[in-house]
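Page 42, continued from yesterday. The earlier attempt failed because a stray header line got pasted into the input along with the sequence. Redoing it now with the clean sequence only.
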Amino acid sequence: MEEQNQAQQRLAQFQLLKGKVITQSPSPYMNWLQPTLISAERGELHCSYVIRKEMTNPYGILHGGITAGIIDDLIGATVYILGLSGKYTTVNNNIDYFAPASEGDLITAKTAIVKQGRTIINLQCEIFLPSKNRLIAKGCSNMLNIG
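This time it went through. Structure tokens are written below.
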């Protein structure tokens, strides 16, 4: 019952941010990324990000490490809003990169739970470049309950 209440509270807190830039997350990295929440449901988050200069590589395109960071951070936040009593950490992050995005582009990222077990939760995240209707990256992660 306590997990259910915590899940409802965390989800409700996120839902209040719909349409707003997230700057007060428990994750300092999320605050740096400055996502705008599109939607939040149990086991699903959808955010947009504007690619800033400090997010790019020397070619002016979105750095692969930032892409990986967006995937990892949003997947972590998806697990966080489940309100589970344990703490979870990433044990792997498999990412396929398909297309570039450039400084100034708006990208979106959407997570989904693939399978939720007691010890490991498997999730995926897809990142899109809506202006070109293009999938630019897809990641899958396992999150481990560490207590």
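Notes: Residues 3 and 83 are 5 Å apart (CA to CA).
Reminder to self: strip header lines before submitting.
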